[in-house]
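> Could you send the M3 family oligoendopeptidase prediction when you get a chance?

Sure thing. Input:
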Amino acid sequence: MTAQLEAVERILTVPEDQTRWETFAPRYQALQDADLSADGVPAWLAQWSAVDADLTQARSKLSTHADLHTDDEAIQARFQAFVQDVIPGVQRAEQALTEKLLAVPGYVPAPDFALNYRRFRDAAALFREANVELGTTHEQQMSRHGVITGNQTVMLDGESVTVPQAKAKLDDPDRAARETAWRALAASNLEVSADLDALMLELIATRQQLARNADLGNFRDYTWKRLDRVDYTPADCLAFHEAVREEVVPLTTRMMADIATKLGLDTVRPWDYNRNNLLDPEGRAPLKPFTTGAELEDLAQTAFNSLDADLGARFRSMRGGLLDLESRPGKMGHAYCEYYPVENQPFVLMNVVGTGEDVRVLFHEVGHAFHGFYSGDAQPLLWNRWSPIEFVEIPSMAMEFLTLDHLGHALTPEELARYRAKQLEGVVAFLPWAAQMDAFQHWLYAEAPADLTIADLDSKWLELDRTFHPFINWDGLDEEIRAKGWQYYHIFRAPFYYIEYAMCYLAAVGIWQQARIDPAAALTNYKAALRLGSTAPNPELYRAAGVEFRFDREYIKGLMAFLGEQLA
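Output:
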């Protein structure tokens, strides 16, 4: 084990007593037994926040450790035991404490807690005892997705490689090499598709039962309340899908047609389209700004130092065990930022393979880390950290843009122009995918028949894919491969969490517009919005960052015009 991995393992160590409910139960009970008056609420909340922080940190570290070792049965079992033993007791204790808080006579929350007080009230109304055990089942089901996909390998050119390593081949300028990699990935995905089909049917049944237990008509209605979506409605999301279809799909189609023409391609095949990294129109090899994870860390360190001294210092503090960047067998193939609140430490997990896309993803995930750092510094109460989910991707996506002018040390001017173009193209190409993902989930949980089958899921995904990606030619290919596109991380492990990426990408473009005029002011606004944490509603958070909370057709049309000008 390398020194870096040893440091990661130390960070993720959770004492045995922190994995048992009996450790936390007395602390929650003491809060329940306390005499509570309006004057005493602030100190009582601080004690409650401290208990929740300890518990949240234990859970987060166990979860991260499990994602880094999907092939280790003992590590998986330790996390599942925590979920089964601790989480039900926590949910019941949290409900009791919430009811105690709401019953305090004469208590008026301070301005920085008013929003979360309302959320507590709404969450208490949504609580059902029947959903405690069922919620544990749901957590365990979602975790199985990581085990299934984390142990997935791809046979490519006679060699077994990880999924991220195989995906890197999709950027090869050689069309035959791309096709070979695409077919290998498709074969690997089909090998696990039956397991994912079965898991999805279990999840759908569980999720709809959670809604019924809460006296709600469907899982979409349940999720709307659980995620505190009060600033927009499902109808607004449906209008967003239509706006993307009308304003963005044509732009993406033209963009791909132009690339295909310049490359001499008669049509765009699935192996010619990677929404995260569109083909280079001049047929140049993909950018390779680094080789190892350590080199990527150095690259990012220099960029952050150039952008802002404090951001550079924050990133430097993560380089002692709070980054795990290399791809390897047995490691969950997604990328994310986790947060450990007791020490106010973020943790970034990635699977880098040496591409320019890896650079963008690292800036994205470290943007999340900055959100944790700044909100944690400014907000003592755990619930006031981070932000509503409609804002939470702005720190990450804006960082993708704010670093664009700070990569001269790693890229030549020509390479930097290519990287910048990829970033802008990526926004355009991402929005149809985001609309498709969101539209699929609205159908799945609010419109699909009660006797839903896997064939129904596949059929709906095909319908939506033809709508949002009409420029890809699938003629002569196995339709099952296309139909299984819904077998994606967020569908399994973060239901209904996807439109937020679109909202925040639009806002990130707006922040970049500011930065083109006044980079210092844009960065100041960025930090100020992060420090607000979850103490302000979405419209105020967006305004603090210098943008609007909008994702309507007119707004999208204007931003697409701006991106088109920049790309031109």
